[in-house]
Amino acid sequence: MNTTEPHFNYVRPASAAQSTELAESQPMVEHLTVTEFMSRIPHPTRWHLDDINRFGDKVGWTANSIQLARMMVQSDSLGLIRVFPVPLLMRIYTVIAPQFNWPKLPELLPGRAPRRDADERLAQHLQASMVLASEPEVRESIGNVLRWLDERAQANRAQA
């Protein structure tokens, strides 16, 4: 056996409990759409449609070649969109970026925007709606949602 090559051991779980434990011990990998990934890379101008097509085609072909399971997300405007593991997206980008003079991949990709922005907009909208609501049940329901949003915001601040 060649000792310079990495050696991988496959652990076959003996029971369902051990299988769950093994799955939970594995690191979670973020998945993104091609456009979400590319939007996180600083670019002097907007990405050209040909660049998005080039990168997306390469990612799709590679994912199919390695028999990667299809994972999808639902978009309100586009329907089902395929998502890919970020390490795969990063690897393909670093390989083809020099060919097309694309910007280098940053050391750390920025994460998704926190949900606080959406929660704050929703709270503002609900507060404006509460003024217009004439029925007490509707005002009570809006108040319950506002309290829940406030509790969630406080929990998010405590985690940060």
Overview of this structure, please?
This protein is mainly α and 160 residues long. It folds into two domains: 28-100, no CATH class; 116-159. Helix content is 56%, strand content 9%. The protein contains six helices and three strands, in the order αβααββααα. Strands 1-3-2 form a three-stranded antiparallel sheet. Strand 2 and strand 3 form a beta hairpin. The termini are far apart. The model has no long low-confidence stretch (mean pLDDT 81).
For the structure shown, list the relevant keywords.
single chain; 160 residues; mainly alpha; 2 domains; 3-stranded antiparallel β-sheet; 6 helices; extended
* Count of distinct strands: 3
Could you spell the SSE succession in H and E letters? HEHHEEHHH
Count helical runs.
6
β-strand amount: 5-15%
What distance lies between the first and last C-alpha atoms, to the nearest angstrom?
A: 48 Å
Number of domain units: 2
Low-confidence stretches: none
| Form type | extended
**How are the strands of the largest sheet arranged?**
1-3-2
**Averaging pLDDT over every residue, what do you get?**
81
Biggest sheet statistics: 3 strands, antiparallel
**Helical fraction:** 55-70%
What structural class is derived from the secondary structure elements?
Answer: mainly alpha
Q: Radius of gyration, Cα only, in angstroms?
A: 23 Å
